[in-house]
Amino acid sequence: MNTRKAYDKWSEQYDSNVNRTRDLEAMALRQVLEEKHFSSALEIGCGTGKNTQWLVNRTETLVAADLSEEMLAKAREKLAGYHVEFHQADINMPWDFTDQCFDLVTFSLVLEHIENLDFIFQQAGNRLKTGGMIYLGELHPFKQYSGSKARFETEEGQTIVPCFTHNISDFTESAKKYGFEIKDIQEFFDNEDRTSIPRILVMTFILLE
Q: What does the record give under GO molecular function (predicted)?
């Protein structure tokens, strides 16, 4: 099952099933960005709106995109009455769903499903203002090394969403190619247990040129 179809199916239970990765990444985004306010933001992989609901109060203009139309339907329902511009989009293709330039681009649990990071950082750079920030919150590669993947259960059995393993250096090298400077790297752990394998990797980058 391809990524779009998998998330279309997952949308039926995404908000209600037990998902420590989803919940910890949401906490991480709030912690990392809590002191900031942006005039404009582009949320890549908005899903059912778990972070959109928080971001909408911290930016004047919010554009949110996702591959799955069914996930977007959930997000639109949650954000009814808020000024959010939603788009169905495949970010492996040129980002022509918007012509705006933004102060912030966020990726939440998205890039494990993307093979070519260079293209993503190139497109993000095209959509950021100079000095703009990327927030990236992903399943930690250490978790992937141990076999963890995006997955969910249905009556038909377990569905594993197609994914790729990216090392930390893969992110940093792709970012540097397209004019980004690493601002911060943080790791988030289940139950704040720093003796365990970190679950979420958060990286922030600033566009220099």
A: S-adenosylmethionine-dependent methyltransferase activity
